[in-house]
Amino acid sequence: MPKLNEIKSSHLSGWTHIDALLDTGPGWNWLTPSRQVMYFSFSTTSGLDPKSAGISSAVTTFSSAQQAATLKLLNYVSQITGIQFAQVADGSLADLHFGNANITDNASAGLTQWNYHYFYDGQQNITSYVAQAYVYVDNAESGDRYLAPQVGNYAYELLLHEIGHVLGLKHPFAGDVTLPANLDNTNYTVMSYAQVGLHSEFSSFDLAALAWLYG
């Protein structure tokens, strides 16, 4: 059972190529009691984040192509991490939510937000932990550019990048630990903003960080 101070910080490995990608949440490993199933939903009628400051429109449902690409990527993530993903129609039952919206930051094509809440006892032991994550793809400035993701195009890599955030990865240029400039590109991590080619799977640094988090 984790302690209160443990869930508020990243557990660093000591390796820059891993630690530069570790975010402080959403902390799926702290779910109590422990479980290996994460529930996700494409519902736009329930379970949405009522406090999201990152979007300025109603959330609309992922296209059939977006849903198919998401299912493919979650299957891929399952093979890497051991997490099992189960789809639910009722968004209020989901840990992970997907939808399209007008993202407030006009320069952003995707946005992932997460939150968590917990209870703890008198010895600072966490007794329960609940996390939620929300993935939004822009449908305003970007129009319909990202409505048809498939292996090999940027819309697919965008979903991969956002799912990386869901799993607890950050941008390698943000935070206290960062990658040197010569390694901060998508050949090493799809969490980078320096695009080199197109990627349909996580790069080597991403895989190392995910192994640290879930291995």
Q: Briefly, what is this?
A:
The chain has 215 residues and is an alpha/beta fold. It has helices at residues 16-19, 64-81, 154-166, 204-214; strands spanning 37-41, 84-87, 96-101, 110-120, 126-138.
Mean pLDDT: 93
Number of strands: 5
Shape descriptor reads globular
Strand order of the largest sheet: 2-1-3-5-4
**Rg over CA atoms:** 17 Å
Total helical segments:
4
Portion in helices:
10-25%
Q: Would you identify the regions where 5 or more consecutive residues have pLDDT less than 50? A: none
Helical/strand content category: alpha/beta
Q: What order do the SSEs take from the amino end to the carboxyl end, as H and E?
A: HEHEEEEHH
How would you sum up this structure, described in words?
The mean pLDDT is 93. The chain has four helices and five strands; from the N terminus they run αβαββββαα. A five-stranded mixed beta sheet has the order 2-1-3-5-4, with helices on one face. The chain is α/β, with parallel strands linked by helices and 215 residues long.
